[in-house]
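Researcher: We plan to redesign the surface later, but first we want a full-length starting point. Tokens attached.
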């Protein structure tokens, strides 16, 4: 997930926001593997595991509502799993 702060969200940056974000992800069945501040198009990158795409989308919307951070959620597969999936090998 990549995140972009709104002008109001920048004013609220704190450790409490990170705790709240973690709670939202957990409530959606996910786990945050890592979170990183970035420069450029996105202000942050969050690596998270979810049971499925629906849970990831729910977390993305929940984070936006609660924290004012707009997230682009990008489902990803390990390259080995992708190779098996599209290569037709079990």
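Model: Full-length starting sequence:
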């Amino acid at each position: 997930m990549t995140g972009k702060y709104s002008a109001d969200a920048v004013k609220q940056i704190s450790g409490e926001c990170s705790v709240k974000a973690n709670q939202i992800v957990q409530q959606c069945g996910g786990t945050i593997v890592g979170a990183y501040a970035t420069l450029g198009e996105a202000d942050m990158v969050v690596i998270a595991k979810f049971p499925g795409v629906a849970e990831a989308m729910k977390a993305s919307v929940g984070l936006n509502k609660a924290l004012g951070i707009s997230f682009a959620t990008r489902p990803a597969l390990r390259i080995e799993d992708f190779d098996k999936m599209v290569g037709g090998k079990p």
